[in-house]
Design brief:
It is a single chain. The protein is elongated. The protein has 461 residues and is α/β, with parallel strands linked by helices. Helix 6 links the parallel strand 6 and strand 7. The strands form three sheets. Strands 10-9-8-7-6-5-12-11 form an eight-stranded parallel beta sheet. A four-stranded parallel beta sheet has the order 2-1-3-4, covered by helices on one side. A three-stranded antiparallel beta sheet has the order 13-14-15, with helices on one face. Helices cover 36% and strands 15% of the residues.
Length: 461
């Protein structure tokens, strides 16, 4: 059984001991704690840890606090035969770090749904702007960049623009009913034309690319089967789109049409324009996209079309990229799409952690320096330093009490204000707060550099 040494500081020692006593038997390892002469080991550089760490018994592996700065070289050069690594930023995540509860994600990541990212009113945009938007969509997960044309006006430069985008390694589709625009785009390298029905299907025979078939009468699927048969006869590859309708305009019935098309044509490729729901519903788009991708995965709909126009849809492509992986994993394994994709937990965290009343009280007693530690849990903010523990729900009241007891300079006051704002927001939304770390917003999270006004000195004894 491997023997692992966990490096920690004085404050975290009790909590780490309790956690490891429960975790080690389950994860199959023995453990040793190295409590360094510093209050918070996560603030100690690896070079300092290498100078102060002593290994008095045989071990196989060393786990450092995830936030300790510096390269691992000072440690690996001193103990070259040991595996030395950083653990998670929060010690409460150690169970996941050691594979407890993480087995469901084995093999996670594959997908079989293509994303078409539409750039609306493409003819109105400068080519540089088009390229920038297209590259971003591709980086977010789009498989094809769909150029949305303007009805009623011919885009004379469509061929040149498609050729330019294709030369940049992008796969392009064109969204138009104009036969001239579709022909020029296909000749320049477009791989897909949206859309075809009775009015322009004859022209599609000459484009040499795949097309999307839509009904002549969307509410009844009128003309869809006839156009599909026509294209099959003339060997034009196609995807069928029964057309998703917005809520209050036939949404439920339109889902039924997708079911009907799949039942009648079990092998045909189908596309869904999910933007008809996300763009036209007053709600953040992530949850809507996830549910629609679940519907698509179960029904074998292998391509979706989205836009990113309104503000609540500005990250739809990335949301769909994560959702298609989540739904593929869940459906292929007949398991719930739960506890699999933390990147889609945007507003609230998947799991709330709490030190608990007793642990916070012990921490408050152990702190001997003047640096303020902030905690937010169970509806309250806590501010602690030597001989001080202020708690409450109002950051202004807490700051006033701290200031009354000790003078706080301007830079430290700004720092505390920033941190307490984050802590108060975490309480409001039901998120985890860890001092000097960014709040978690799923894939929208931006790493935060610590700007703590006063840090514990690593020479602390």
């Amino acid at each position: 059984m491997p023997r692992i040494l966990f490096v920690t500081g004085k404050l975290a020692e009790p909590a780490l001991r309790r956690l490891l006593a429960e975790l080690a038997p389950k994860a199959g390892f023995d453990y040793v704690l190295a409590v360094l002469p510093i209050t918070v080991a996560a603030l100690a550089p690896t070079s300092w840890i290498a100078r102060h760490l002593t290994l008095s018994e045989p071990i196989d592996r060393v786990v450092l606090p995830g936030l300790c700065p510096g390269d691992l070289e000072p440690l690996t050069s001193r103990w070259p035969r040991l595996v030395i690594e950083r653990g998670p930023n929060d010690l409460r995540d150690l169970p996941e770090h050691f594979g407890q509860g993480a087995s469901k994600r084995e093999g996670y990541g594959p997908y079989d749904v293509a994303i078409l990212a539409e750039i609306n009113h493409a003819p109105r945009l400068a080519r540089a702007d088009l390229l920038t938007r297209a590259k971003k969509a591709q980086a977010d997960g789009a498989d094809l960049i769909d150029l949305g044309c303007d009805p009623g006006a011919e885009w004379s430069e469509v061929g040149e623009v498609v050729a330019m985008l294709c030369s940049e390694g992008l796969r392009i589709s064109i969204d138009t009913f104009s036969c001239a625009e579709a022909a020029a785009a296909a000749k320049a390298g477009a791989q897909l034309v949206l859309s075809v029905n009775r009015t322009n299907r004859a022209a599609a025979r000459d484009w040499g690319c795949e097309v999307v078939v839509v009904p002549d009468e969307p509410s009844t699927l009128g003309g869809l089967e006839e156009t599909m048969e026509y294209l099959e006869t003339h060997r034009v590859p196609f995807r069928a789109d029964p057309i998703l309708e917005p809520i209050a305009f036939g949404f439920a019935n339109s889902l039924g049409r997708y079911l009907d098309v799949r039942r009648r044509f079990p092998n045909v490729e189908i596309l869904m324009g999910v933007g008809n729901l996300t763009e036209l519903t007053d709600v953040d788009s992530a949850g809507v996209n996830v549910v629609l991708l679940g519907f698509c995965q179960e029904l074998g709909i292998r391509s979706v079309l989205t836009t990113e126009v309104v503000t609540w849809c500005r990250s739809c492509v990335k949301e769909l990229d994560l959702a298609r992986r989540l739904m593929h994993h869940a459906c292929s394994r007949s398991m719930l799409p739960k506890h699999l994709e933390p990147g889609l937990h945007l507003l609230r965290d998947a799991k709330l952690r709490a030190h608990g009343e007793e642990a916070l009280a012990q921490l408050a007693k152990q702190i001997t320096d003047k640096n303020i530690r902030l905690f937010a849990e169970r509806g309250e903010l806590h501010a602690m330093k030597a001989q001080t523990h202020v708690r409450g729900t109002d950051p202004f009241t807490i700051f006033e009490e701290i200031s009354r007891r000790n003078e706080i300079d301007g830079s430290h006051a700004f720092y505390l204000g920033w941190e307490m704002a984050k802590a108060a927001l975490a309480l409001q939304l039901g998120k985890n707060y860890v001092q000097d770390q960014a709040l978690e917003w799923g894939f929208l999270t931006r790493a935060e550099t610590s700007h703590r006004a006063a840090k514990p000195k690593i020479s602390e004894k």
